[in-house]
Amino acid sequence: MEKRKWLNYLINSDSYIASLALIVLVVLTSLGVFMRYIVGKPFTWLEEVQLFCMVWIVFQGGSVAFKTHNHVSIEMVVEQFPLKIQTIIMYLVHLLVILILGYLFYQSLGFIALFVRNGRKTSMLNIPMWLFYIIAPISICEMIINYINSEYKIAKEFIENKGVENE
What burial class does residue 39 get, using C-beta atoms within 10 Å of its C-beta: 0-12 exposed, 13-18 middle, 19+ buried? Predict the structure, then answer.
């Protein structure tokens, strides 16, 4: 049972990380406003932490959106075609999504390698910039896995429902 619990945490780590980053962003931004305008002593490092949180929220949130099948899609046009063409379009969309995510993964590795080679760091906290963006390839891998898993579940449900309709 303990192994299953850890697996559940791992599977939902994108939700936990995005949620934590959002909480940190909201709390620190609110505290930053208080410190700047009420106390008169702003946090000089706040912008760097906010950037870090936003990048991690975006990438981990994208992974969650793939997992929950909550990306925006406009199916109205596709639904006007015959079922056979809809199926072809669906397969093309799946292929296109996987290809684009694969390309983004490849490019994100180059982007991080550039930061590692340059040794660029933030000005206030002296954090290596690659740490800000290391979440990109990790999240993109999660997106690919979540997309395939999500589409598999939808296809499985469709097939099961189709069998019920035929009876």
Answer: exposed
Q: Which residues pair with 121 in a beta bridge?
A: 128
pLDDT surpasses 90 at 75: no
Determine phi and psi for 128, rounding to 5 degrees: -60, 130
For 107, the token pair is 């490019």
Residues 66 and 101: beta-carbon distance below 8 Å: no
pTM across the whole model: 0.84
Q: How far apart are CA 41 and CA 44, in angstroms?
A: 9
129, with CB counted inside 10 A (0-12, 13-18, 19+), is buried
Distance CA 50, CA 43 (A): 11
